[in-house]
Amino acid sequence: GTVKIQITSDEFGVLPEFSHAFEILEYEGSLTYSGAGETRSGRVSLKRTGLETATLAGPLVLTRVATNRLHQFTVGESHLTNEVGEVVPVSLGELERDPDYSMDYFGALSLLNGDPATPEPDYELFYIGIDDPNDTDGDGIPDLTDDLQAPPPAPRLEVRRTASGLELVVTSEVGAEFTLEHASRLAADEWIEDRRVTIKSVPEILAVPLGPQEERYFRLRWP
Q1: What values do phi and psi take at 194, rounded to 5?
Q2: How far apart are CA 49 and CA 55, in angstroms?
Q3: Mean of all residue pLDDT scores within the chain
């Protein structure tokens, strides 16, 4: 587009109009990340809107802000690479989560030089928005900034017949939480939640009343 600037001076009056051409770049793509502590190790893969041969890709380190760690994080120094292999340094960035935003997170990202092919630094400031559909614990906070818990070790489930039914013997770490499910046959859509199980002692023994001719399958699921 074109921007026109006209300055009025107390001494010289209305000065001549200046016209400048400008271009706003927009990129779209994906962010993958891992980690469950204060830092998420991420990687972006972006394509320029309207010119998909122009790309930016590389790592980003995302660190939660201590005072508002569930809703805000910073982007640390890093280096992205464009479509011709030129390095595009990332200086810093800050994003936050707000219900008034159209995306889950929104903020600014600063590049030292957005187009290394030109002689002067340019395209230094970008606004960035991120949508994260992942919400493992269902608390409404995306996994990107949520307090994530590592899954407990896989439990061992043994079944013993008793006079009144079954005993399920669960071996896992104390404090681990699972959902016990049962089904009358092994089909993906047949599993029904039986109860929530918190391991209080090892092993944890669960009594399951069962008729003499009744058959069931059992499994433990986390979370």
Answers
A1: -95, -50
A2: 10
A3: 89
